[in-house]
Write a structure and sequence with these properties.
Number of helices: 5
Largest sheet: 5 strands, mixed
Structural class: alpha+beta
Order of helices and strands: HHHEHEEEHEEEEEE
Distance between the termini: 83 Å
Strand content: 5-15%
Oligomer: single chain
Number of strands: 10
Helix content: 25-40%
Radius of gyration: 23 Å
């Protein structure tokens, strides 16, 4: 007759299993997170290569803003001038080279344009004139739906993407020409963020921020993105490579808004907005 396990022996076995599980679950979670980060890095690398091919087909220029407004003012529709073609709509301009594009929020998230590390409920939004100027075309040809109508005018188009274009490529004089950049290997093309375009005064939109900041002027960006992304930002650079870098906040932490001697962020470098910026990473020419 076989001897049965005693209660003490069963408790010991259960305790050992619990200890092993406590040791292995964090390792498993870390491995899973690393795999997601690898996929995210690969996506940005492919977008960087697509940008290089785009430039080779467009006289060495990346998507930029036209010399004249592609959406002129129309008081009857309440539209203002919009000339931010490259900055706002770059994902669809890259489609011939990636064969994929962001999808409307009425459809499933597109894995290629959506970081697997990002929250599942944080779409990007083309609002106001950004939406009205492309509705109904070319928005419908891009597979986008109007999320909110204001009368006959489309007021919001939401889509799935977690990557933002360096705003200075589109609006800085000469910025769209690859040959104009002093250090393309150190210059930003795309960063992980909650808007279609970004510059150094909009770094509250980075996915690496994990703290709520009620002092932010823009209430839409006061709450943390909660992407985390291991406390860093994956960046596609102008020379075609992509890399993850630890986000370095200034001495006042994630909710500091100062520029100058007490920067909100050290890397990526925080700057004031506008065409007068000359900061390495953001602009073709720089002072530092």
């Amino acid at each position: 007759m076989k001897k049965a396990f005693t209660l003490i022996e069963l408790l010991v076995v259960i305790a050992i299993i619990a200890i092993l599980a406590a040791m292995l679950f964090p390792v498993y979670a870390q491995a899973k997170n690393s795999a997601k980060q690898t996929a995210n890095l690969s996506q940005l690398k492919q977008l960087a290569v697509a940008a290089q091919i785009y430039a080779s087909d467009h006289d060495d220029h990346l998507p930029s803003d036209p010399l004249t407004d592609f959406c002129p003012s129309d008081p009857t529709l309440g539209l203002g001038d919009i000339d931010r073609w490259g900055n706002y709509y770059w994902p669809w301009l890259f489609k011939p080279y990636t064969k994929v594009q962001p999808t409307s929020t009425s459809r499933a998230r597109d894995g290629f344009m959506w970081s697997p590390l990002a929250p599942t409920n944080n779409p990007q939004n083309l609002s106001g004139d950004r939406a009205a100027c492309i509705w109904p075309q070319p928005a419908q040809s891009w597979g986008l739906d109007c999320t909110v109508f204001d009368g006959a005018v489309c007021d919001s188009i939401q889509y799935w993407s977690t990557y933002a274009y360096n705003e200075h490529i589109g609006d800085y004089p000469g910025g769209s020409s690859l040959t104009a950049w002093q250090e393309p290997a150190a210059s930003f093309l795309l960063l992980e963020a909650t808007d279609s375009e970004i510059e150094g005064d909009e770094l509250d939109e980075l996915y690496s921020r994990t703290e709520n900041c009620p002092n932010f002027d823009d209430p839409d960006n006061a709450d943390a993105t909660f992407g985390g992304h291991n406390g860093g930002t994956t960046i596609a650079f102008l020379d075609g490579h992509a890399k993850w870098r630890k986000t370095q906040f200034g001495p006042n932490g994630q909710c500091g808004l100062e520029w100058g001697n007490v920067p909100f962020m050290v890397f990526p470098p925080a700057t004031q907005g506008g065409n007068s910026v000359r900061v390495k990473g953001w602009t073709p020419v720089f002072d530092n």
